[in-house]
Amino acid sequence: MNQIRFSHLEIGMLFNYQNVSYRKSTPLLAISADNHQRMIPRSAMVEVVGTDKSPSKIHVANAHQPVNPQEIVEALDDFTRECHQLIQSLSTPLNLKQINQARKQLQVFSATLFDRLNIEINHEN
Questions:
Q1: What is the pLDDT of residues 81-107, one digit of tens each?
Q2: Distance separating the N- and C-terminal Cα atoms of the chain
Q3: CA atoms of 76 and 115, how far apart (whole Å)
Q4: pTM of the model
Q5: Beta strands in 12-95 (DSSP E)
Q6: In angstroms, what CA-CA distances link 84 with 38, 81, 122?
Q7: Continuous segment of H or E residues that includes residue 8
């Protein structure tokens, strides 16, 4: 069993923590195979599953159907506008609560964008 501290994992590495498999997504967050995010303590001891850091698989639903470029542009414009509004709403300097709230909101924005474009993200390799 190859155990190390969570803080020593590189972004993208696979590991087990408390009997659940994750991929490290940020210095403090990991994503489980069922797409749930979890904050992992930096000092937590985790079991390294593999060093594969390849990107998540992306599945485009209805890939055989023609893509409407206007729908893509509109979805990206909405995503950009929402991100810009979020950034403008933040006060500086940012505290940890604001950072976590912004990260969660960006995840909602991303999920909405992916839904509109019929893109499914699979974090398993």
A1: 888 888 888 877 878 788 878 888 888
A2: 21
A3: 12
A4: 0.47
A5: 14-17, 20-24, 29-32, 37-39, 45-50, 57-60
A6: 26, 5, 27
A7: none
